[in-house]
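User: Hi! I'm working on a homework problem where we have to compare a predicted structure to a textbook description. Could you give me the structure for the chain below?
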Amino acid sequence: MAGLDARKSDASDLRSRLNPCGSREHPTSACHPRLRAKKGVDARHEARHDEVKSEFDPMTDLPCPPPDPNPRPPRFAMPPGAVDAHAHLFGPASKYPYSPARGYTPPDATVEAYEHLHRTLGVARGVLTQPSVYGTDNRLILEVLRAHGRRLRAIVAVEADVTDRALEDMNALGARGIRVNLVDKGGMPYASLDELERLAHRIQPLRWHVELLVHVHDDPALMRRLGRMAVPISVGHLGYMPAACGPDHPGFREFLALMRDGRCWVKLSGSYRIIGLKQTPYTDVVPLAHALIAANPDRLVWGSDWPHPILKIPMPNDGALLDQLAEWAPDADIRRRILVDNPAMLYGF
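Assistant: Happy to help. Predicted structure tokens:
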């Protein structure tokens, strides 16, 4: 029992280092260490209380509205072979039950609705990312790969003791990396960074990478360590730093340096998760996007983040979200690299 408690403590400490205020903090408070420190004890206590309650009380779930069922096409021409590098599928819960340690309960998001989205947006291929609500149960994502594998790839979540045979089987279906979610409950299956680094060595022969959901500005030293793993890393949601911090934030500048080295990829996804605005266009995220593109346009991919779980502002239309890419990258050649060439390299299309 003592060993199990120690593992839980180590994993909790790792999460708190990267996300000291929890995933619900206000975008501006995350940029101010004094304000964050003042709130820290209460926030951590509340997070622990919520984690215990969420296993038994579905009323603790965060709000999770469905996506706009009527996406419109983007206002720019999508290049042939465009890739949506970040989306999730959910349900039905009767067939694919959610983890009791989840932080939210999503409505169903089916592969049929996902394909309709892609047809409307002009997307040819997609990458499904394992959501935290399923923990390391990859059954849904793997079954979809079996049926649609020629145009889809996936990022899975696995335990540290996953067998080499299981990794090889998932690779054959189209899995191309493992996800480590250090923000949402249920997304961190490893007790320590050492454990993650050992797994990185095991997936290296498969040419996989580690996808991280992490606030990149919180602990630059830790990000540097992650960047030295045996495989490349990919970071979601433009680095998941509140846009109010700005591109000159010291932690973000170090993150840009990691990108320039070439071993860190970034997903231009989920911009609504880091903004202070409520309606598209989310102009406050433009400086961050421009800084990322200037740092290394060959290490960027775009993702819809459909069906936009745990959205706390009015649900945007997916066409309007995609339109932002034309503002972030007005040059058609750079957009083609972000939408076609870069994801083809990272995911092996």
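For your comparison, note the following. Residues 220 and 254 are 6 Å apart (CA to CA). The two ends are 45 Å apart (CA to CA). Good luck with the assignment!
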